[in-house]
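Summary for the lay section of the report: proteins are chains of building blocks that fold into shapes. Here we show the chain for Antibiotic biosynthesis monooxygenase family protein and then a coded description of the shape we predicted for it.
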Amino acid sequence: MSDHFIAPVAAAPVAEPVGAHEPPYYAVVFTSVRTEGDNGYDETAERMGELVKEIPGFLGEDAARTPGGLGITIAYFRDEAAIDEWRHHVEHQAAKKYGRAHWYERYTLHIAKVEHSHGFERARG
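The coded shape description reads as follows.
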């Protein structure tokens, strides 16, 4: 049993989850607890969101944050090469370094291979 508590989630600006993709692909799960204040975070996060879309093999991103500060971002990539390209992107590396110094109390990163994926959408009308 986990020692984590369940908290309500405040939706990120994206109103829909990333759709299912043909497996295999990869999910990069970044779970974080932020420091107090913005300290330029929102502006940088927006820039990173723009840059990652330029990475060949980037499939999309889901994100949510609890009122208590727990954030979860899941970025989906076609292959490990795309993840490596994003990991080594110069601006992303600078943002990670700044984040460790200013934005995060703690974080974890998990990379998982997705072997099954499907979705559901209720018919409208």
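Put simply, here is one thing we learned. The mean pLDDT is 89.
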